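dumping this here before i forget
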Amino acid sequence: MQTYKNDFPILKQAIHGKPLVYLDSSATTQKPECVIEAISNYYCNDHANVHRGVYELSERATRLYEKTRKKVQWFINAAHAHEIIFTRGATESINLVAQSYGRSHFKAGDEVILSVMEHHSNIVPWQMLQNQIGIELKIIPVSDAGELEMAAYEKLFSPRTKMVAISHASNVLGTLNPLKKIIEMAHAQNVPVLVDGAAAFSHISLDMQALDCDFYVFSAHKAYGPTGVGVLYGKTALLERMPPYQGGGSMIERVSLEKTTYAELPYKFEAGTPAIADVIGFYSALHYLEKVGMKAIAEHEQALLHYATSKLAAISGLRILGTAKEKVGVLSFVLEGIHPHDIGTILDSEGVAIRAGHHCAMPLMDRYKIPACVRVSFGLYNSKEDVDALMTGMKKVLEVFK
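structure:
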């Protein structure tokens, strides 16, 4: 997809005198020109607060803002636009569910099932709830290949199980979890499922009605959109039973000094002035993804994943983490005797941007008995030439340290 690389202004620059090769899309994707233009155009022509004004600018801004909500609904095939809640990111979306649904539906001794491969954003909010009301956390183990141990998962259910919170894909291993089976097993026990889709959303097509999860969260900035915007999808019946997460303007129906009544969905969860420009920019990102095609993106990233895996696996002393059969375009590894941060620094000197560290997945690092690893993650703008540049950088790493 070399032609699409030209759509991303930031990728035209040099780093340390070398062409930028950006291989950290799992942390955040770069932004196409159309997204940047949409944000600029809003501030130049349409800026006003939404849902409040009767004047033309406000009505224009509101139409653009709500147009994005409808676009998200269509993109993930949600049943209703009011099931799309805008937040600041996947992290806030999970916290919203934990604090609103969790605190109003769970009691001491109730259980939430997580997995070892979860991002901290899908661990810490539940631990906070554990400290607040005394819930218990049950953990699905992960195999050496980086796959969930489904037999162990089935045994974790009990009459006290009240939620399964699981990642769609691992942001470290790239593992694409068998969501359909996970959800069916939970629903057989009348247990709702929250899916952290932050590491999967930009890689595959989604259909909420076919998937049948109860909550699904993701961030715009990991899908070629702006930072500061996230989505919580939730089934209407569950969202209606949840109290507001935050109080303030926009989320009310009527306020008196004695009592407040709340707005209907989705607005009761959207207190205050939202990230209007960024939500509008996200519409352009989704339109861009639609134009490129999610199927084409998935096929392209899989080709890069297989190419990079074969190249890196040939390096003596290099161990790839996660060899699941189903993966998104994420590849992590450790190299014997060389710290991941040193690898990252040398690759940067060659213009290659990768991520080195624990990737907000410390329990997973503990599972593999490592402090950190190197992560290479692909976007639609990457090419085999980018992988070749990575390998040139890895050759320099080996020359310096071995």
